[in-house]
Amino acid sequence: MRVAVIGSGPAGLFLGTALARRGHLVTSVDRDGGPPPAGAWARRGVMQFPHAHAFRAPVRDALLAELPDALDAWLRAGAEPAEVDLGGPRVLMGMRSQRVTFERALRETAARQPGLTLVQGHVQGVAARAGRATGIVVDGSELEADLVIDASGRSGRATRSLGRRRGVSGACGITYVDRLYQLHPGAEPGPLVNVIAWQGDFDGYLSLVFVHERGIFSVLLLRPEADAELADLRHEAAFEAACRAIPALAAWTDPERSRPLSPVLVGGNLINQFRGQTDEEGRLLLGGLVFVGDSVCTTTPNFGRGVTTTLAQARELLRLVDEHGDDLDAVARAFDEWCDREMLPWVEDHIRMDDHTRDAWLGGDLDLGQRIPSHLILAAAAVDPEIGARIAPYLTMAGGPASLDPVEPRARAVYETGWRPPFTPGPSADELRVIVRDAVASGLELRR
Fold first, then answer.
1. Which class for 256: exposed (0-12), middle (13-18), buried (19 or more C-beta within 10 A)?
2. From CA 90, how far away is CA 1, in angstroms rounded?
3. 62-68: Cβ within 8 A, 24+ apart
């Protein structure tokens, strides 16, 4: 079967390589030409590329199952397995790695794969006849294909003219800035809440540290999107002043312990979104066209689930191609049903959590008449250890949000006592605004 893949990110490279190994002829097209022989890889068209990422255990499992040589390349490049002791055999929670390290390993593997051609170009649209995809149009020329896979991400434009797909979405109302650092040789890491991250919940904002490979880590500050004053955290002086004011971040970013590797990076608009394979009437947009990755499922990045949900989709799509062969309508419809079962719950989970977070930042309290949001179920483990003993499937993404259902009543009982998670030590949003304002003013004064 001839396959055209729109996009050569994690979904496109993983699927393209795995399909070629099954004997299909695959062409993957992306505006970006891949990493240069030397220097940094800018990765055209992917805003989130330099930002913080987390890689859950299913990412390792996907590579092990389909592309073990890519896993080997990732490990050689420095990726670090992060295991946790939960009272039995040690459990892999995830892999410490930057996005660029992961994609380089995938790209290196894909470039060597017979039957897979990586093309740099602009996909202008999908070619179609009689309601079926016949290929893609690349820089004015048609590339013929039996199956077209749109792995271009949530902002991909090549298939927009085909119509609106059914789905749900929720604006997060949250935005973020982050900065990359590296520990000095021999320096110990700062505080962590688990083996891959630290999180601080403050009065009016959030902060995260994601640990990557070789002592590299990202510091994130997440704020209400409408908070214009905290938008100035994009300035280096303000970002560093905020880090000094938050004890855990001060420990991580202490110049005696680490050094910055990047400027302050500004994240894009955040959205929780799920889109199916069909329109609102249940019709496939085109026979022979399948959407995968961020174009199906996008969640707020504070849990670092994007690559994990993408590769879970890729593995299921491969299974369905193996099962249904060239009956591509059966592939698309079965994949759509699977995404409804397995991907939509993650989006709905994040919508609930973000709705609560925004409300809490405005002074609202937990609505005990609704399901307890997942992040508050996790927080209740501080009071009820039985909750903590049963949350591993959710944390590792081996199980979906429903894996927390058995302990949700226990969390509810905790909150019915009036207990609420305490704020992490650090300034409130009001205090942080003053810190940011003073840092920006000082910076302006120094430049005069």
1. exposed
2. 42
3. 62/14, 62/311, 62/312, 62/314, 62/315, 63/311, 65/315, 66/14, 66/17, 66/18, 66/21, 66/315, 66/318, 67/14, 67/17, 67/18, 67/106, 67/109
CATH of domain 174-266: 3.30.9.100
* b/e 320-343 (16+ beta carbons within 10 angstroms → b): bbeebeeebeebbbbbbebbeeeb
Confidence at residue 444, expressed as pLDDT on a 0 to 100 scale:
55
Which amino acid type is present at position 263?
P
Q: Which two tokens stand for residue 336?
A: 């759509």
CATH code of the region 2-169+270-346: 3.50.50.60
Residue 304: pLDDT band with limits 50, 70, 90: confident
Contacts of 417 (CB under 8 A, 6+ apart): none
The model's pLDDT over 53-111, given as tens digits with 9 standing for 90+, comes to 889 999 999 999 999 999 999 999 999 999 887 666 788 889 999 999 999 999 999 99
Kindly report the number of other CB atoms within 10 A of residue 191's CB atom. 12
Which part of the chain has CATH 3.50.50.60?
2-169+270-346
